[in-house]
Structures are given as structure tokens and as C-alpha cells.
Fold this protein.
Amino acid sequence: MDWTLFAIFFAACCGAAATGAMFPPGDWYRRLDKPSWTPPDWLFPVAWTALYLALAVTAARAAPLPGSAHAVAFWAMQIAFNALWTPVFFGLRRLGAALVVLVVLWLAVAGLLAALWPLDRIGFWLTVPYLVWVSYAGALNFDIWRRNRDAVPA
């Protein structure tokens, strides 16, 4: 693996992760009606750290491979929508709009997996947990939106 490529892709992941620091959940989020299957707050940074490391490894492995243009394009698309979700959900407090962002993010990750399958099976399997997490996050976002759609963001 090219460690320079890893560092570049990991820097992109860090940029996406930084939105969590810029737009923390706060009291507004704590007051929302959330399902019982909402994970504890401590789980999010643990999960995202592992996912971002796996994503950076996957991208660094795939980028130099012949025929990797679609994989790299989907990787760029997913990190952009990943970075967009936090400001939309926590910054703007637009739960429905955040759900739309998550749907596009899910499609980008699915596209990334489809592009990785013929290129790099290790990268493919490193990315599968991300699709599972985004699916879970989408279900959680939907349920929070459904429970709170009439609430006025404060």
C-alpha cells in the first residue's frame, strides 16, 4: 500500500470527521424523541474511527489499480455526502434533509462496493461494515425524523 495515498485519503476522512466537532449534538439532540435502539454517545467516535481507517486503507489500495476510476469517484462521492450529513442534521437541524443526504450516501457506498468487487476484494470487505453502519444510521435518522417531524428546531 502506498502510505502517501493512505495519508491523503485519511486526511479527507479527518475533514469529514471534523464536522462532528464543529456541529456537536448538544441539548437539542438530547431532547429529541429517539428509539430505544439508539446507540450510546460513546459508540459513535469509536465506530467512526474504525470506519474512517478502513475507508482510507480501501481507497489507498484501490486508487493505483488499473480501472479504479469508478471506485475512486464513488469514494469521493461518499466522503462528500458523509461530511455533509452532520451539518445538515446537527447544524441546520433538518432531519428530513439529512435523511435525503443519507440516502445519497448509501447509494454512493453501494456504488463503491460494486466498483471494488472486481478490483480489490480486501477493500470490498473492509467497506461492507460501512454500508451496514450507514444503513443503520439511515434507519435511525428516519425514525428520529418520524418521531420529531412536527417539532420546531430550537
